[in-house]
From TrEMBL, chain A:
Domain Toprim, first and last residues per copy: 79-174
Family stated for the protein in its record: Belongs to the RecR family.
Highest classification ranks of the organism: Bacteria, Pseudomonadati, Pseudomonadota, Alphaproteobacteria, Hyphomicrobiales
Keywords of the record: DNA damage, DNA recombination, DNA repair, Metal-binding, Zinc, Zinc-finger
Zinc finger (C4-type): 56-71
Protein name: Recombination protein RecR
DNA repair keyword on record: yes
The protein's role, per its UniProt record: May play a role in DNA repair. It seems to be involved in an RecBC-independent recombinational process of DNA repair. It may act with RecF and RecO.
Entries under HAMAP family matching the protein: RecR
UniProtKB/TrEMBL annotation, chain B:
InterPro entries to which the protein is assigned, alphabetical: AAA+_ATPase, DNA-binding_RecF, DNA-binding_RecF_CS, P-loop_NTPase, RecF/RecN/SMC_N, RecF_2
Family to which this protein belongs: Belongs to the RecF family.
Lineage of the species this protein comes from: Bacteria, Pseudomonadati, Pseudomonadota, Alphaproteobacteria, Hyphomicrobiales
Domain AAA+ ATPase: 45-394
Chief site of localization: cytoplasm
Binding site for ATP: G53, D54, N55, G56, A57, G58, K59, T60
SMART domains assigned: AAA
Name of protein: DNA replication and repair protein RecF
Function description: The RecF protein is involved in DNA metabolism; it is required for DNA replication and normal SOS inducibility. RecF binds preferentially to single-stranded, linear DNA. It also seems to bind ATP.
Residues passing through the membrane, by range: none
Gene3D superfamilies: P-loop containing nucleotide triphosphate hydrolases, RecF/RecN/SMC, N-terminal domain
Subcellular location: Cytoplasm
Amino acid sequence: MNGPEIERLIQLLGRLPGLGPRSARRVALHLLKKRETLMQPLGTALADAARAIRACSVCGNLDTIDPCSICADSRRDAGLICVVEDVGDLWAMERGRIFSGRYHVLGGSLSALDGIGPEELNIGSLVKRVAAGGVREVIMATNATVDGQTTAHYLAERLAEHEVPLTRLAHGVPVGGELDWLDDGTLATAFKARRAL
Amino acid sequence: MTAQAISALAYSSDAVSGAAPALLAVRQLRLTDFRNYRQLRLDCGAEPVVLVGDNGAGKTNLLEALSFLAPGRGLRRARLDDVCRRPRGEEPPAAGWAVAATLDTTDGRVAIGTGLEAGRSETSLPRRAVRIDGRPMQSQTALGLHVAAVWLTPQLDRLFLDGATERRRFLDRLVTALHPEHAGDVAAYENAQRQRSRLLSDGNRDPHWFTALEDTMARHGVALAAARADTVQRLDAAARLGVGPFPRASLAMAGEVDRWIATMAAIDVEDRLRGELAASRLRDAESGTTSCGPHRSDLAVRHLDLDLPAAEGSTGQQKAVLVSIALAHARLVALSRGRPPLLLLDEIAAHLDAERRMALFDEVVALGAQSWMTGTDAELFAPLGGRAQILRVADGSIAAV
């Protein structure tokens, strides 16, 4: 029906997260209609990004320079490492400007069922960073899912010999959350982690 | 164009007298592309509902729709996709399904919507959407705050003869009605258990990874075993009293972890389970199983009037014990949570003699929860008289009898 170029475009777009074959066709058509204003700039942006952006050899963050701008920033505290699953999580932390230390991006979480083991994740380099000394605290900011928590526990095991304080983010009542709307699991977790006023 | 099978039915609850005020009742149910229902709207009173109709008319489908108002995979444990209405002829296939209900609860009126959303992303895994009073919920566990549902289906008639897996599943549903967080613990435990089995079968020897997974198994496993122990203990006390002509029954957990729970502090049981799992890695790798944990527990039920294990009674006696447990459980939930569960009783009149049918109906009316019962023969439900609403189900539509 279509030329091979269009089919290939649709096929590739269909591999993007959140897009299936139907939305891929819609996106392809939209791009073709906005050839000058969208498609060509997008193509250039994709090519530039593919050429220039690499994973930081220290923390795994994505940036055009290596080490990344966070690792290279001397004003950020190198003694604090916040471990996150994905770059998206790092971006979320940075959006909130809540953390002034450095990061370590694992690139996912341990999942035996998906064939993701420690070798597939950016774990060896974290152990090396901690072993090199100068780290005062490692903060586990993995997701509050079974896999995320298993990963945090695994890292704690791996880092135990270095005797660096390990912490994890609190689980519980979301800020602005109404208790009435919380599921029992979250409420029970929040209850266990209550603290003195 | 196909005729739309829309049926609307107004039913006045004022017409029915003598019923206790409902503590939990579905007052309106709307189905969209659910099994054999294209569109259905059903308005009903708070009294028990009896669905009569021929085989294949869609009675059990309605019970299944109601079972989705509580957390879990519903009465058939179906895949979300399989619940979609099958297209007839040249109709386009349905992309999603929805069950929306308005319920009267002790907290007032609650609107629950759940289903598989048609507009969801094509690539993401199908996930059950849940809305309560129009607000999207993160997970279906939120449903547990409002609705607990317990069902008896003809498949469960073999419960005492089937494997322990079926009994654990049945028990876990009873536990979830008392401890809504139980379903989450079961899911987390099973997830970690599957991952550990995968590591073992892959020949992985990373001790830290095993320790992390076994820690997850121990924490959730002990939490779920403790919830089972608590439920079974209270249910045993209630079932020993018996309900009317239904047999008295005793219930007990049988399993290694259950014995520990009975005699040790939970924190020590966690350590014990962690230790056992760590010690059994080699053995488990060879056998391809997980040799220790609450997934090996069983529910032991005895028919006290016969003084026999429930499995050794006749088919009818087994059914009677099952009804006994369900009714004792409903009373227990009503007492401890202030609100009984929805009882979904599929083909319930089968295997019960007239005396027990009468007693079941009396109990169901007294319970204060709206029970939904199905049967092919309206006559069997005659003893309910005006205390229930009897509806006839035929080919995707419903009408009052």
